[in-house]
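// run 5 | inverse folding | seed 20
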């Protein structure tokens, strides 16, 4: 069975990284890649067709000699497919057309490398191998005119460095996108809104709160209030070590927004350090309903909801659930 990491790697992907024509032209100018370079590379088409297979075989012989890269090609079908794609890449270097479609394909290569978790050092090494291998082939093809071989090689080197820049650009952008998604998922998991009783929610907050996370907390809480038709929320900040003025103001806004949606918020677990910080910052805490610890907060919430906890000794029938008074 083929490795799913490589599925669709030669197909356009939705949400691809795009670079406009102005950026493409700027990169070419910086590398001094001109029309004459494109023509020089186009003239190498027959040579590329002749040497494509041996160059690719040499490349993958080199790849498979290292444990780290060999791990990507355990499946023979995957290996053959990637070889075919690499051959297409090799031949495209001498097509002479290096516009938007060419750039889009190169960007896709970097995205695929990030998706399969192939470290940049390996595909940068592959580019180096390409250049060395092609240099030798050009010397063979232009044996009587080494100056022509060198001139063609310089044009190829400019194009390869354009490709390297595009692939690295796409790799970094894809990795940053992956990291952002992971951070979003971690933040959402780190601030769950729990329903512990009908119309009663618990929001335990642990760790550092920055402005972005504070906004996520607010959005998640308000959404849960609406979905659960909550009337009381216990916001426990026992696990929060520090709160700055921006975050404090945001939490106060969260309490106000919850109140507008018909839910009262009880803040529990304020540490002495956080309390002193809030006082020192001059934050107006008059609108906050605070209780010392989580248990006290839940008891206060149950009181607001009209629940009454009955001890088992009062009924003689074992543990009893809380009842409305």
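// decoded
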């Amino acid at each position: 069975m083929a490795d799913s990491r490589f599925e669709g790697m030669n197909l356009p992907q939705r949400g691809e990284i795009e670079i406009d024509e102005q950026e493409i032209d700027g990169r070419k100018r910086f590398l001094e890649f001109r029309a004459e370079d494109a023509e020089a590379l186009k003239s190498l088409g027959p040579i590329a067709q002749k040497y494509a297979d041996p160059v690719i075989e040499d490349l993958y012989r080199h790849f498979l000699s290292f444990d780290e890269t060999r791990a990507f090609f355990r499946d023979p079908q995957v290996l053959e497919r990637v070889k075919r794609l690499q051959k297409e890449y090799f031949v495209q270097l001498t097509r002479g057309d290096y516009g938007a479609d060419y750039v889009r394909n190169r960007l896709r290569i970097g995205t695929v490398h990030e998706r399969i978790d192939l470290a940049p050092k390996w595909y940068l090494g592959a580019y180096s191998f390409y250049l060395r291998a092609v240099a030798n082939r050009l010397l063979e093809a232009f044996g009587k005119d080494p100056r022509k071989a060198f001139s063609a090689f310089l044009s190829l080197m400019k194009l390869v460095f354009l490709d390297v820049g595009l692939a690295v650009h796409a790799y970094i952008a894809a990795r940053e996108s992956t990291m952002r998604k992971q951070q979003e998922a971690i933040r959402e998991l780190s601030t769950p809104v729990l329903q512990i009783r009908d119309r009663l929610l618990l929001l335990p907050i642990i760790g550092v709160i920055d402005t972005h996370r504070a906004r996520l907390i607010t959005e998640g809480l308000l959404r849960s209030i609406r979905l659960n038709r909550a009337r009381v929320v216990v916001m426990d900040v026992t696990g929060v070590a520090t709160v700055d003025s921006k975050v404090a103001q945001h939490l106060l806004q969260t309490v106000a927004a919850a109140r507008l949606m018909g839910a009262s918020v009880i803040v529990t677990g304020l540490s002495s350090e956080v309390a002193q910080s809030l006082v020192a910052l001059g934050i107006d805490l008059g609108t906050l309903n605070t209780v010392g610890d989580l248990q006290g907060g839940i008891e206060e919430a149950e009181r607001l909801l009209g629940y009454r906890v009955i001890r088992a000794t009062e009924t003689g029938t074992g543990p009893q659930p809380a009842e409305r008074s």
